[in-house]
């Protein structure tokens, strides 16, 4: 059990339910449990055409579905429109993580989330993306606000999911649930760059589908 008590949250005023974009089970587990304990009505929106290859995409998605079903949370399975993702990433193949390719990638995922929200009666969107310490929260929040601004009546909730022990509980839940442990951000370029780094540092290349969180492991992510 975490020593850090979970804070009970309320949605920003004027909103009664939330469309939560989820990138994966490890990142969304803590966010989902916090929302449930806070009595907040929400649905999961899984739109991540960045994830490559399809084997990795399906593993990450299935893990998220398993957790949503366990908690009886609606899971909206959106397109895997990789052609669009690659078209938008053209010319940015060699950009570093946290650079302009990632801004494009967050923009694209938030744009679809905001579109779905506007067409299905949600007035508030957010994402699990910002809970990871590997991500630039300001970059993510800028993308979220930008997407929401395209629609009248849609707001982006930039709550900091890392605070009040959120980042610690994220790891605890991942171990308890034995979630699949992805070893790169998601796209083919992050897979390439992580493998390059690993080989330079004498480590083996990433093997897809083999690593899972467990209570026996050291805290490493
Ligand atoms: S590194 Fe991650 S955030 Fe950046 S483009 Fe690739 S999948 Fe998207």
Overview of the molecule:
This is Epoxyqueuosine reductase QueH. [4Fe-4S] cluster binds at residues 23-24, 102, 105. It holds the Pfam family QueH. The chain is α/β, with parallel strands linked by helices and 221 residues long. 43% of the residues lie in helices and 8% in strands. It contains 7 helices and 5 strands; from the N terminus they run E-H-E-H-E-H-H-E-H-E-H-H. The protein has helices spanning 25-37, 54-70, 82-89, 100-119, 137-148, 166-177, 188-200; strands at residues 18-21, 42-46, 75-77, 124-127, 155-156. The chain has a 5-stranded parallel sheet, sandwiched between helices. Strand 2, helix 2 and strand 3 (75-77) form a beta-alpha-beta unit. The protein is globular. The mean pLDDT is 94. The protein binds iron/sulfur cluster. Iron/sulfur cluster (SF4) binds next to helix 4 and helix 7.
How would you summarize this macromolecular structure in one to three sentences?
The chain has a single domain, classed as HUPs (Rossmann fold, 3-Layer(aba) Sandwich).
- Radius of gyration based on Cα positions: 17 Å
CATH fold name, please?
A: Rossmann fold
Order of helices and strands: EHEHEHHEHEHH
Q: Quick one: CATH superfamily?
A: HUPs
Largest sheet: spatial strand order: 3-2-1-4-5
Provide the β-strand percentage band: 5-15%
Mean pLDDT: 94
Count of extended strands: 5
Major β-sheet annotation = 5 strands, parallel
Total separate domains: 1
Residue ranges: pLDDT <50 for 5 or more in a row? none
The CATH class is identified as Alpha Beta
Ordered list of secondary-structure elements with their pairings:
Elements: E1 18-21, H1 25-37, E2 42-46, H2 54-70, E3 75-77, H3 82-89, H4 100-119, E4 124-127, H5 137-148, E5 155-156, H6 166-177, H7 188-200
Helix pairs in contact: 1-2, 1-6, 4-5
The protein binds iron/sulfur cluster.
